[in-house]
């Protein structure tokens, strides 16, 4: 009989305020901020410390965030970029490595992205396509800025290869390199003609941009030897700062202030003095100087430290925004320790920055090392190096925070009102293992001091606690001494056996009543980190740092099965009560669900982005809680979705093959590179901003299938039109089942093609068109001719037409059979574009009239006198 299992799915994730994988940015109002939360982005209310909303689309980790007004761009570790615009998500796929930096241009119409794959890509946010891919850096791109000052069209990028490059977007090439940096370039910022760069050597450099030189076009080859190209970016000097660590981020706030953050606990705010202040400073210098001395202003006179903010932990990123008043500046500090802080500066007075608010309660500062559930599974306790937090498993809210030592293990006492925690500073060494006894009257602990100790619960009178109620306590009454450090302890549910994992790689089993030795379980190559006993006390599982899980029988101590469970150390294992199913958690960032009877892997739960340290399974396996190095706690809930093991294996293999296909290098190589005798060309500075993804490949297959359907239906409709001439009552041809299922039974075949094209994301459309073989390109051109003739979606049809003509120009011009189709498209396109031009011209003229009326400050309605009749002079507007 085929065994059916129930699937576990991620229900909620909590405990992350701001992960260190990405930067945090202010929202446009300055009172809220967008912070990375592993695979999602959270909008926090900084004053109330509450979550406003959460943005998520995908399972990859966020790596960088950029904002322009209501547009929020987020880069991910899989190379994708998502843009949220009031809930609408646009996806860009072009990078083959994590996105490291994002920047909008001054109008928010274009987005530049840099990646660890060394490429810089410029995206059109409106058209949702990639414009250019710039290649030239030899290492990870750390910062890039689209610069359109003085109507120029340039992009400046910095990289870990120590270079700063200036790209001419119009000429599609690099026009200048800055090679003065001695270390990796980590930060860039541009304000007017000022360029600030921060490098790994800790220096903050100021550069002057010469826009006249930058505007000059490339020199002809004939004049290249005689002419000398002037540099457009010149070094002004180094700005002194307190921090000696490498510069991580630079942010401008208007023309007067900018902030600098290093790889430490400091944020330095600098002030740029205006002309009046510089004149006063120069006059003061002249007054102090001797008569014969020439006085000049130095860089330190023009730019000086205005204020510094020192935090208690290392800063991951920061952002600047306007305060409630014009003379106030707000600073957002995003800590690496999962904290957000909001500071406020008074720009008129040099006073220390004031801490307005801090969000730190909904998360731990360090790794979560232990988890435990209450008896009713309503409460979840988590422990880290300095605190214990109690959470609600229903909504993920933090109920209480308790200070403690370095927590290693924990358990709720019967009743769920008390919690006991084992720390590093306990007994004569750290307590590595703890369990409540089956009779609920006591507990057992295992420590590094080579002892297992038994405690009884009781109530004692304590005046410091209460004069009326008694305080719960644990009284030590028995000790088992061993030869090695104790790493884990477990008591069988029937209360007869005690299992102890030792540092000598063995597990010793004792009778709990007499503490006599019963069994020795050996076979692991590294210490056992965790173990558990089934509810019928017949099977024990042991999880070890040797990546294996072993299943033992408690009757004779025989090893039933040794499973290579994970790709790294297995840190936790636990049975589901009443079954032989168990869960394991590992440093390979995964949780696995196993069947101890069949020795099969049932499913794998992926979602954490760090080593998983702790695991807690609900009483009857309704849910599983896990905690990781990424500081998140995740609840995996059992669903009603049932599956068979063989189907799950096939699905996993198919997903693995798909991932390998997308990652295959053949998709990134030039066409014809596999032919014998192929000579590799020099690397290009510009390449198409595309990347093969599983979604783009599926979109190509969908379009190819639609073209086959259109070709068949088009032939049937042409035959039907011929039949109607002789027989008006002829039956219409049957539609394809896929067309009917799409709800387009009454639409023409061309409208079905348009429906399929519009269902493909604009960022994937070009990739989908590239997957079509040439005979289907011909079919698509024939379809486009009919779409243009029927005036259906002119913008989309012309966009596809232009792309096909560019990509297949040589093939189309050399195919004679296409000549009538191309000529027909040419005629129809001219007519269509003329109509569109007339519509646009009419709209532009109408908008001009509305603009003129707005400038006059008065709208004229029917029956109202015009300006001349009211005795007012009519304003003349010159239209350029």
Question: What would you say this structure looks like, in words?
Answer:
- The chain is α+β, with helices and mostly antiparallel strands.
- The protein folds into five domains: 17-56 and 314-362, no CATH class; 60-146 and 155-174, Methylamine Dehydrogenase, Chain H, CATH 2.130.10; 180-212 and 230-278 and 297-310; 370-655, Methylamine Dehydrogenase, Chain H (7 Propeller), CATH 2.130.10.10; 694-836.
- 20% of the residues lie in helices and 40% in strands.
- The chain contains twelve helices and 55 strands.
**Number of domains as seen in the coordinates:** 5
Arithmetic mean pLDDT: 87
SSE-based structural type: alpha+beta
- CATH fold name of the largest domain, please? Methylamine Dehydrogenase, Chain H
CATH superfamily caption of the largest domain: YVTN repeat-like/Quinoprotein amine dehydrogenase
CATH class bucket of the largest domain: Mainly Beta
Tell me the number of strands: 55
Please give a handful of descriptors for the protein shown.
5 domains, four-stranded antiparallel β-sheet, Methylamine Dehydrogenase, Chain H, five-stranded antiparallel β-sheet, 12 helices, 880 residues, alpha+beta, single chain
Q: What would you say about this model in short?
A:
The chain has 880 residues and is α+β, with helices and mostly antiparallel strands.
């Amino acid at each position: 009989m085929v065994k059916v299992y129930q699937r576990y799915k991620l229900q909620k994730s909590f405990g992350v305020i701001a992960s260190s994988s990405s930067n945090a940015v202010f929202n446009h109002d300055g009172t809220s901020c967008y912070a990375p939360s592993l695979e999602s982005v959270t909008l926090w209310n900084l004053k109330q410390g509450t979550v406003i909303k959460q943005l998520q689309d995908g399972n990859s980790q966020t790596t960088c965030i950029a904002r322009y007004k209501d547009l929020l761009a987020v880069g991910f570790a899989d190379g994708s970029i998502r843009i949220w615009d009031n809930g609408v998500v646009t996806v860009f796929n072009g990078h083959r490595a994590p996105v490291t930096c994002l920047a909008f241009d001054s109008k928010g119409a274009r987005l530049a992205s840099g990646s660890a794959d060394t490429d810089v890509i410029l995206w059109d946010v409106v058209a949702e396509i990639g414009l250019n891919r710039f290649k030239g850096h030899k290492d990870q791109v750390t910062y890039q800025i689209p610069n359109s000052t003085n109507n120029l069209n340039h992009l400046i990028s910095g990289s870990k290869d120590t270079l700063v490059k200036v790209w001419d977007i119009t000429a599609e090439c690099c026009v200048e390199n800055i090679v003065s940096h001695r270390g990796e370039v980590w930060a860039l910022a541009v304000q007017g003609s000022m360029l600030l760069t921060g490098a790994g050597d800790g220096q903050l450099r100021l550069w002057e941009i010469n826009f006249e030189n930058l505007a000059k076009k490339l020199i002809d080859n004939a004049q290249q030897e005689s002419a000398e190209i002037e540099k457009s970016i010149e070094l002004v000097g180094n700005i002194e700062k307190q921090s000696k660590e490498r510069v991580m981020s630079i942010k401008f706030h208007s023309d007067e202030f900018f902030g600098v953050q290093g790889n430490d606990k400091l944020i330095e705010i600098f002030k740029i003095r205006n002309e009046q202040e510089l004149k006063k400073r120069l006059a003061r210098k002249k007054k102090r100087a001797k008569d014969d001395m020439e006085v000049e202003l130095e860089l330190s006179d023009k730019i000086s430290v205005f204020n510094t903010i020192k935090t208690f932990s290392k800063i991951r990123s920061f952002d600047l925004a306007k305060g409630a008043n014009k003379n106030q500046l707000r600073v957002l500090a995003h800590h690496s320790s999962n904290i957000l802080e909001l500071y406020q500066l008074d720009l008129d007075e040099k006073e220390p920055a004031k801490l307005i608010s801090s969000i730190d309660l909904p998360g731990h500062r360090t790794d979560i090392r232990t988890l435990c559930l209450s008896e009713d599974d309503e409460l979840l306790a988590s422990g880290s190096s300095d605190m214990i937090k109690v959470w609600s498993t229903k909504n993920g809210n933090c109920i209480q925070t308790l200070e403690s030592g370095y927590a290693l293990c924990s358990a709720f006492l019967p009743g769920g009102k008390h919690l006991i925690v084992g720390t590093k500073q306990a007994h004569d060494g750290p307590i590595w293992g703890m369990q409540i006894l089956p009779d609920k009257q006591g507990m057992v602990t295992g420590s590094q001091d080579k002892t297992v100790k038994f405690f009884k619960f009781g109530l004692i009178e304590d005046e410091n606690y209460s004069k009326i109620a008694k305080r719960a306590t644990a009284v030590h009454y028995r000790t088992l001494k061993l030869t090695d450090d104790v790493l884990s302890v477990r008591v069988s549910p029937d209360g007869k056996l005690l299992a102890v994992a030792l540092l000598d790689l063995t597990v010793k089993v004792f009778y709990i009543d007499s503490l006599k030795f019963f069994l020795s379980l050996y076979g692991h190559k590294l210490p056992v980190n965790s173990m558990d006993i089934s509810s019928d006390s017949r099977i024990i599982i042991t999880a070890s740092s040797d990546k294996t899980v072993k299943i033992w029988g408690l009757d004779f101590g025989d090893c039933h099965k040794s499973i290579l469970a994970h790709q790294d150390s297995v840190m936790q294992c636990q049975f589901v009560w009443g079954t032989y199913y168990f869960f394991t958690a590992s440093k390979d960032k995964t949780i696995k669900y196993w069947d101890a009877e069949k020795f099969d892997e049932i499913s794998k739960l992926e979602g954490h982005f760090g080593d998983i340290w702790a695991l807690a399974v609900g009483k009857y396996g309704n849910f599983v809680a896990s905690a990781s190095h990424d500081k998140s706690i995740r609840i995996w809930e059992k669903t009603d979705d049932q599956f068979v093991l063989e189907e799950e294996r096939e699905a996993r293999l198919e997903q693995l093959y798909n991932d390998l296909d997308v990652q295959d290098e053949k998709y990134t190589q030039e066409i014809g590179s596999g032919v014998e005798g192929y000579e590799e060309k020099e690397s290009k500075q510009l390449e198409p901003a595309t990347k093969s993804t599983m979604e783009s490949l599926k979109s190509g297959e969908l379009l190819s299938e639609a073209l086959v359907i259109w070709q068949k239906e088009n032939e049937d409709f042409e035959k039907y039109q011929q039949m109607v001439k002789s027989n008006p009552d002829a039956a219409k041809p049957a539609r394809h089942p896929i067309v009917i299922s799409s709800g387009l039974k009454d639409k023409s075949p061309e409208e079905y093609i348009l429906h399929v094209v519009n269902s493909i994301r604009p960022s994937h459309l070009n990739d989908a068109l590239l997957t079509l073989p040439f005979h289907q390109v011909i079919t698509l051109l024939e379809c486009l001719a009919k779409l243009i003739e029927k005036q259906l979606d002119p913008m989309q049809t012309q966009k596809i037409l232009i792309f096909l003509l560019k990509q297949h120009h040589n093939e189309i011009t050399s195919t004679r059979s296409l000549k009538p189709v191309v000529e027909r498209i040419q005629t129809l396109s001219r007519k269509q574009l003329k109509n569109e031009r007339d519509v646009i011209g009419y709209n532009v003229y109408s908008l001009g009239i509305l603009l003129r009326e707005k400038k006059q400050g008065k709208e004229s309605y029917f029956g109202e006198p015009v300006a001349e009749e009211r005795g007012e002079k009519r304003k003349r507007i010159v239209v350029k």
